[in-house]
Amino acid sequence: MISVILPAVAPAHTLAQLLAQLVPAAVDGLVKEVVIAGVSEPGLEALIEDSGARFVAASGDRGALLAAGAAVARGDWILTLDPMRSLPETWRGPVEAHLAGGAGAAALLLAPGGWLARLSAPPLGVLVRRLDYVATGGFAGHAPEKALAGRLKARRVRL
Which of 52, 67, 91, 150 falls between 20 and 30 A from 124, CA-CA? Predict the structure, then answer.
């Protein structure tokens, strides 16, 4: 159902921690695949092999890495995640609720917290239907997830 795209901009051990948080969702069928896009490195190669993730060789800014991952995604939905931040333990509930009742709208995933955290923290990621991603021209720019979410008038989903 969901293709998770991770830009390889974090150390392999940080990516491994995020991948571990996705395992239960993969076992249950919510996460169909994980695509890691970036420059191949020895630690990253081992992580990809051990986790079963797909690797896409790509370079450039965050938008270019996300676009490379999205180009090979096979899920109906694309979920980008910031590989430098962990997911809250309760991330699945809001995501599943949005998929069930969001009428196909994109979602900008925000960390839990008060209003100060909301103002200063970047989004954890964006959830978008793959067809909508393609129709809007995808990820580009300095803050690609925010830009895409803005073009799609994404709903804000607090995790």
Answer: 52
Q: Which of 3.40.50.1820, 3.30.2350.10, 3.30.230.10, 3.90.550.10 is the CATH number of 2-158?
A: 3.90.550.10
Whether residue 123 contacts residue 149, with contact meaning beta carbons closer than 8 Å, is answered with yes
Report whether pLDDT(140) > 70: no
Query: Domain locations in the chain?
Result: 2-158
pLDDT of residue 135: 81
The Cα–Cα gap between 135 and 91 comes to 27
Q: Where are the alpha helices (DSSP H) in 28-156?
A: 42-51, 62-72, 92-101, 115-120, 130-136, 144-151
Compute CA distances 155 → 34, 46, 50, 99, whole Å.
Answer: 23, 36, 35, 12
pLDDT at residue number 120: 64
